[in-house]
Specification:
It contains seven helices and four strands. By secondary structure, the chain is of the alpha+beta class. Bound molecules: adenosine-5'-diphosphate (ADP) and magnesium ion. Adenosine-5'-diphosphate binds next to helix 4.
Length: 140
């Protein structure tokens, strides 16, 4: 399995609860390396751009409102099979359906305020990394 990069966000519910360190530790303990990281308070426009793929969904407004409601930590993670591995560590979108020991099971509040984001495929990982980081900011 190849070394991959994926994009991760620690969402505003989790930064509000001071969980940046605990969540990052889960990623590191599972073999992912943080090769870029910054704390951003995204604008409504940035949230809409990032989540454009969901613009037709009923929860789009709520999602963009939430994502621009406070600080987020955007990160690039590197490791073997990083995209799928991060999705496993995160758990299901709905925390009530997330497996025991996953980040969302332990820290998420609801299906909307669910602590973390992770890219779902190589193409989206590439796009999402480029949305927040320049190559110079990523140090493997
Ligand atoms: P994931 O983050 O697990 O990849 P999706 O890509 O389906 O999930 O959705 C993106 C984000 O939109 C979710 O993480 C969550 O914050 C929000 N969301 C998804 N479904 C709902 C819903 N039914 N109600 C409110 N917010 C939702
Ligand atoms: Mg998704």
């Amino acid at each position: 399995m190849a070394v991959e990069r994926t994009f991760s966000m620690i969402k505003p519910d989790a930064t509000r609860d001071n969980l940046t360190g605990k969540i990052t530790a889960r990623l590191e303990e599972n073999g992912l390396r943080v090769v870029a990281s910054k704390r951003v308070w995204m604008s409504r426009k940035q949230a809409e751009g990032f989540y454009a793929v969901h613009s037709a969904r009923g929860f789009f407004n709520e999602l963009c409102e939430f994502m621009s409601s406070g600080p987020t930590v955007v990160q690039v993670l590197e490791g073997e099979n990083a995209i799928l591995k991060n999705r496993e560590i995160m758990g299901a979108t709905d925390p009530s359906k997330a497996a025991v020991g996953t980040i969302r099971r332990d820290f998420a509040k609801s299906i909307g305020e669910n602590a973390v984001h992770g890219s779902d495929a190589p193409e989206t990982a590439k796009q999402e990394i480029a949305y927040w980081f320049s190559e110079l900011e990523i140090v493997g």
